[in-house]
Amino acid sequence: MHLAYLDDSDTKAKKFKWQVMSGVIVEDKKFKLIEIGMASIQELLVPIEKQAKFEEFHACELYGGYGAFEGMEQEKRFNAIRRLLELIAAAELSVIYGAVNLDRLQSEVYASADPLDISFRVCIEGIHRWADKHMTELIFEGRKSIVPQSEIQAIVPRFVDGWFGQLVLLIMDECDRKIKDTLHKSFRSVRLPFKFGGGSLPIFHDDMYFGDSRYSLGIQLADLCSYFIARHLEGDEEIESFYAMIQPHIAFSDIHPPETNLTESQSASVMSESAQSKDITSGK
Predict the structure, then answer these.
(1) Predicted pLDDT of residue 263
(2) Contact 218, 94 (CB under 8 A)
(3) Contact 47, 76 (CB under 8 A)
(4) Using the 8-state DSSP alphabet, how is residue 99 labeled?
(5) What are phi and psi of 198, to 5 degrees?
(6) What are the backbone dihedrals phi and psi of residue 8, each rounded to the nearest 5 degrees, phi first?
(7) 250, CA 20 to 30 Å: which among 94, 98, 100, 190?
């Protein structure tokens, strides 16, 4: 089973023109590793007298040095960010994201569409593609060629385990009722009930859930990813070292509306991420 934690970049509270929704996919048996890692980072970063009141690693506060991290030296905060992002590699997590260029959206015929919902739907699609690829790899053990007839019998048990064992539980950061209803409706349009003779076995759990980021380590990691991905798309070179720690683990990404006027560095990044998305789709 995998847990897919989702959080957005909260661009409404910032100057950025990007709405980003990121998903961090955690295999259930790797969860304890993340909890231990984040607990150790908290112990090293937060003074003893502030431990009892510490609530969460909020990306914008940790990077900017305000809120819970006001008055803390930059190097200490940045070192904590690096340690947090190192957990993505240590726990072999996959990152999915959908991004909406808010300026370009206003020039489209669907300008009134909710950018948060668009980025959420892109994330759902990316997680679904990731799950399909992951299941195929489990069944065929990474084989790219056609399986010989002589090996079909050996694959059957793996097929059953992969087909029934692939389950993803979506956990979204808590939000107000109106947004929650919109996102839940979008999820229900994708996660249809299983019916004999119609459709495939769903890979998502039967419902999505909303959690409080103060108590959800996965949501906090998704918040970090969304924050630095949004600033990367904005062209902020100051955060590139942090984005570089996330980029190798991006398994799927998509931008809406399609961007045509990126800088050279942004264009190269989007092309690279687009290639990763195609790899998931094709299974290559």
Answers:
(1) 47
(2) no
(3) no
(4) E
(5) -150, 110
(6) -110, 170
(7) 190
The answer to whether 32 touches 197, Cβ cutoff 8 Å, is no
The pLDDT, as a whole number, for residue 54 is 84
Q: CA dist 225 to 103, 153, 192, 201, 246, Å?
A: 22, 42, 29, 30, 7
Strand duo 94-101 + 250-256: pairing: parallel
In single-letter form, the type of residue at position 248 comes to P
Residue 264 has a pLDDT of 41
Per-residue confidence (pLDDT) for residue 103, from 0 to 100 = 87
Distance CA 98, CA 266 (A): 15
For residues 132 and 255, the model is more confident at 255
Tens digits of residue pLDDT in 231-247: 999 999 999 999 999 99
Strand order in the sheet with 18-27: 209-211, 168-173, 2-8, 18-27, 94-101, 250-256
User: What is the domain partition of the chain in residue ranges?
Assistant: 2-282
**Residues whose CB falls within 8 Å of the CB of residue 219, separated by 6 or more in sequence, listed in order:** 5, 6, 7, 171, 172, 173, 211, 213
Residue type, 280: I
Residues with Cβ within 8 Å of 259's Cβ and at least 6 positions away in sequence, in order, are 101, 104, 266, 270
The length of the chain in residues reads 284
